[in-house]
Design goal:
By secondary structure, the protein is an alpha+beta fold. The chain has one domain. 33% of the residues lie in helices and 21% in strands. The protein has 4 helices and 6 strands. The strands form 2 sheets. It has a 4-stranded mixed beta sheet with strand order 3-4-5-6.
């Protein structure tokens, strides 16, 4: 004879199994109904920036000059992010095998900030000069009283360390960046450089980096 506790256990297990079966059938029918009645309208893709025509002032090591070339690039609308993306596209050109000027590859611009001018009390150097050759205008420079915006460009240390040394190479890189900003974002009138968030004396041992540059100083053909 089957003990009473075993019969009770059997009944409990049977009722539990039936309850689970009913629950599974109910859930299956509900899910099928939701899928059948779901809105299958395609989700609209996120709105992205449209490609626009921009001017890149590309450096040429052979001639020692800058050459204006147009590109179709999708840039963000926020001014600071826009300026950063513009410089990243510019410096990415110099990592291509066909480039007439090389700076090394990798990510270049870590951050870029825009500061309204005038700042007051901060002198502006008027030219790009080798660190070993002080400019005659180093003393007695006027303070930053010009209208516009100051772009503070924070470069990545890896990109800076990979930059080829030399007065010509370093000068062309800085002039190219200044001229490209000037050609596309005329509200930017001055530029300062940081590397990993800190001032750095030179770009690659020759041209000064710890100074404020006037974007109008970049040489063009």
């Amino acid at each position: 004879m089957i003990p009473r506790y075993q019969r009770i256990l059997f009944v409990v297990l049977l009722v539990s199994s039936l309850a689970m079966a009913v629950a599974l059938v109910f859930l299956h029918q509900r899910n099928f109904s939701e899928v059948k009645n779901a809105d299958n309208t395609p989700i609209e893709a996120p709105v992205s920036s449209r490609a626009e025509r921009v001017t890149l002032m590309l450096a040429d090591d052979t001639t020692g000059n800058l050459k204006a070339e147009e590109r179709l690039i999708a840039l963000p609308g926020t001014p600071a992010v826009r300026a950063r993306a513009l410089l990243e596209h510019l410096l990415a050109e110099y990592a291509l095998p066909r480039a007439a000027h090389h700076t090394g590859g990798g990510a270049s611009v870590d951050d870029l900030y825009l500061v309204p001018l005038p700042l007051g009390g901060q002198p502006m150097q008027s030219s790009i000069a080798p660190a070993t050759q002080p400019s005659p205008s180093d003393s007695g420079d006027p303070l930053l009283h010009a209208a516009g915006e100051l772009a503070v460009i924070n470069l990545r240390p890896g990109w800076v360390e990979a930059h080829p040394p030399g007065i010509t190479a370093e000068t062309l890189t800085l002039q190219s960046m200044l001229a490209t900003l000037h050609a596309n974002l005329p509200e930017i009138t001055a530029v300062r450089f940081l590397v990993d968030g800190r001032p750095r004396p030179t770009l690659a041992g020759n041209v000064e980096l710890d100074r404020t540059y006037d974007v109008n100083d970049a040489r063009t053909p």
